[in-house]
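Quick one:
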Amino acid sequence: MIETIDRLPPEQLTGQHTQTAKLGSDQPECPACKSRSLSTLRTVSAREAAQFFAPERANAESHKRIFACVTSLWGGDTCRIMGCADCGFGFAWPYVAGNAEFYNHTGSDGVYPRDKWEFARTAAELRKLNKRDAKVLEVGAGNGYFLDQICPSLVRPDDVTVLEYNDKSIPILKARGYRALSVDLRDTALDPDSGAFDFIFLFQVVEHLDGLDALFGRISSLLRSGGSAFCAVPNSARVRYQEANRSVPDQPPNHIGRWTPQAFDAVCRRNGLVVRAAELEPLSWREFLAHDISYSHIQRAQLNPDGFIARVRSLPRGRMRRLAEAALAALFIPTRLPAWYDVYRNRQNLGGSLWVRLDRA
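Output:
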């Protein structure tokens, strides 16, 4: 099946948009380690971003609105993707997160994965830590699928707090006995919870956010002494593969950070946290091939918006469109074989996610 590209809506983020970059500045610094040893990896135009999130042929009105929103966020028509030579962090400049208007216009439907590698990896870590009375917080909990893996066997539902903005998810979470709040992680509403949590979970959230010192400072302040935060972000090596092999790019203002263990270490050291462990997800060939076939098909349509593939993708959603897209994607599988061979040779580094455990210092 040809998939749409997963985009995290504001309901799954920590909530508020915090502008940290000076728009139009000619001297950016790395948001993670503050280095100025930077290079420009590529430049993205607002028109290109709008075409990526809403092809003009498929929905001209959404395309127009997204273009206006993106230029407003960036304070101009272009955004640079920068790379830091010191910590390896990649970031959009201006370093500005997508806001609620952007995610509303991109039409994210709030579909949450029921299982991810980082869910099982974190649950295994919790079993080793063996804190049955732990108080936990999940940021961007969706429908609570990760919590299903740890409650009630590892954590009591009464000890769970979740931050979630999706109105459809809140009743689901409350029905499971969780304390569910529609607030930003950095909101003053959480000030009374300072030092309240043993564990905090942020899965596929941090790459969407700016305001890193405010974010990690709040994580530190909410953790008890000896507490841990568990984060998962897209593997930056996998992102580089996609962009080098005509698959979907990591497009701002959706994803604005490309994380490395060194980047986590740099921002954590300023905010009372220590990187205790960092691991890459093992490459799953089933997951990789499904995504690569789908994403390269989507990118072919993006690169040729007037071509046949783009015309098929602009048809109304339905069974006939899915079958047509699947057939078109299958035709191009032989062209992907050289790239897949390179992935096989570098398979130790190309899993989907980077997982880190951060302990309060």
